Structures are given as C-alpha cells and as structure tokens.
Amino acid sequence: MSGDNDGDVTAQLNARGDVAVVVPAAGAGVRLGPGAPKALRLLDGEPLLVHAVRRTAAAPSVRMIVVAAPPADVEAVHALLSPVAPVVVVAGGAERQDSVAAALAVVPDDIDIVLVHDAARCLAPADLFERVAAAVRAGADAVIPALPVVDTIKEVAADGRVLGTVDRSVLRAVQTPQGFRAPVLRAAHAAAADLHTDDAGAVEKLGRPVICVPGSDFALKVTRPLDLALATHLLTLET
Ligand SMILES: Nc1ccn([C@@H]2O[C@H](COP(=O)(O)OP(=O)(O)OP(=O)(O)O)[C@@H](O)[C@H]2O)c(=O)n1
Ligand SMILES: C[C@](O)(CO)[C@H](O)COP(=O)(O)O
Predict the structure, then answer these.
(1) What is the CATH number of the domain that holds 80?
(2) At how many degrees (to 10) do helices 96-104 and 182-191 cross?
(3) Where is the site described as Positions MEP for the nucleophilic attack found in this chain (predicted)?
(4) Alpha carbon of 185 to those of 165, 193, 205: distances in Å?
C-alpha cells in the first residue's frame, strides 16, 4: 500500500465529505491492444487514471480515493497521482472484483458510502458522482448510473441463428461510479462465489435492491481503440 504516509489510510481529500471512492485500475487493457496497462495509457497527453482521479476528486462529497494499481506499479501510480489528489494506492488483483476487494479493504469503517468507479471511465463527470452518492444518502442500498439501450438487441445462438428480439425498453447499459452503503458492498463481496462483471451484480445476488439513476455519455468506458478517439473528442466538449 502507498498512501500519503505509508500505512496511513487517512489520506483525506475533503474532510467534510462522506464518500470513499474505490478506483480499480489494475487491468491490462487487452481489448485496447498492446501497450502499457490501460489506466496508464495516454489521453490528450495524460494517463486515463489521471483524468479519472481528477474528476473524482472534483466531487465535493468525496473524502477519500483508493486506487487499485497493477502490483508492479503501486509506487509509480502513487507518485503520478500525488500532484492530482491525495490518494491511497493498493495492489490490484487478477480480476476486477479482486482489485475492488483489495481497495475496499482499506476503506475505514467510519465511511458509510462507497462508490466503485472504473479508471477506464475516465471522463465521468463530478456531478455523476454526486448524483449517485445523493441516491445512496437518500436511503438506497445500491445505486447504478444507467443509460437506455439504443440498438435493437437480438438473442443469438452459438451458430449465429437469431432466437428472438429482446424488449429493449426494459434494458439499460450500466456505468460507473456505482454507489453502495458500505456494509452492503462488503457483504456482497464476502458472499460472492462467482465472478461478477459489476459490483451491483454481487449485491443483486444478496437479494438486496439496486436502483438506477441517469448515467452520462461522458462516462463511456475506454475499452477498444475507437473509444480513445471518442474520449479525445469528448474532452473538447466538456464544460
Ligand atoms: N484485474 C483487473 C481487471 C480490471 N481492472 C479495472 O477494472 C476497470 C474495468 O475493466 P475493463 O475496462 O474491462 O479493463 P481491462 O480488464 O483492463 O480490459 P480488458 O478486458 O480489455 O483487458 C478498469 O479500470 C480496469 O483497470 C482492475 O482493476 N483489475
Ligand atoms: C463495471 C462495468 O464498467 C459496468 O458496466 C463493467 O461491467 C465492466 O466490465 P468489463 O468486462 O470488466 O469491461
């Protein structure tokens, strides 16, 4: 772990904030193609992770940020982020949920609201963090930002045969930051027997309610090379 003081997890951003944000940033970025770990690839001359942490730190509710970095890069990531915001950096794991669990483990028990945010959604705006946190503060166990699905969605067999058309009015594309009452997120991770692709999925398996709030086009996940081009353009549209 690397914090403002090694072993000290109180690296505080805004003492009046009531939210800790966990930022998994330890992925390889295989779908982006060969190169550095995805969170360290450049967008407009700065690593995706720097963009993500800058916007996270701009949300007034955020008291603490914990980043899960590739294990070999913990010290380098701490040095990279220190000029941007006070952060604690831990070693991530083999899967995204392992990285989230490693970061969650250092969030102090007196912080009641935890948001989990992908470094890859590096342009998610501060007001999205506030919207998600406000919904948790208002009483929800788990809150996810979501957008309507714009394409027609087909269910397809392994051989390519179309089995049917799904009613897209009930579908949503889900983003991060996802917000949780801290004990609920901890219980969901403790109970998770299988891999989950998002943290809300683990909460759903506990049988606890998850609610949606409107997402943001700026919270797109940089996954494939085209997404980097889209993110570069989105930067020019930020207000
Ligand atoms: N073992 C892992 C895998 C992913 N992540 C993080 O989880 C977020 C969402 O994951 P994704 O976009 O799928 O990133 P990668 O796993 O790096 O992408 P790919 O599957 O293309 O390798 C990213 O910020 C990524 O760094 C992580 O912290 N630890
Ligand atoms: C957490 C997430 O970003 C929500 O959409 C998504 O599930 C991550 O999925 P990935 O397959 O790890 O990119």
Answers:
(1) 3.90.550.10
(2) 130
(3) 168, 221
(4) 34, 14, 11
Per the structure, the count of domains in the chain is: 1
Distance between Cα 197 and ligand 2 center (Å): 5
- Out of 23, 51, 65, 96, give the residue to mutate to test ligand 1, the one with the largest number of ligand atoms within 8 Å of its CB: 96
- The residue whose CA is least distant from atom 1 of ligand 2 is 198
Angle between helices 126-137 and 48-57 in degrees, nearest 10: 50
With beta carbons less than 8 A apart as the criterion, state whether 168 and 153 touch: yes
pTM of the model as a whole: 0.95
Element (H, E) at 75: helix 74-81
Residue 225 inside a domain? The answer is: yes
pLDDT along the chain (239 residues), means of 10: 54 88 98 96 97 98 98 98 97 97 97 98 98 98 98 98 97 98 97 92 96 98 97 95
Is residue 9 one of the residues assigned to a domain? no
Q: Is the CB of 39 under 6 A from ligand 1?
A: yes
Q: How far is CA 16 from CA 12, 64, 130, 136, in A?
A: 10, 11, 14, 17
Amino acid letter, residue 199: D
Residue 12 lies in a domain: no
Has the ipTM of the complex gone over 0.95?
Answer: yes
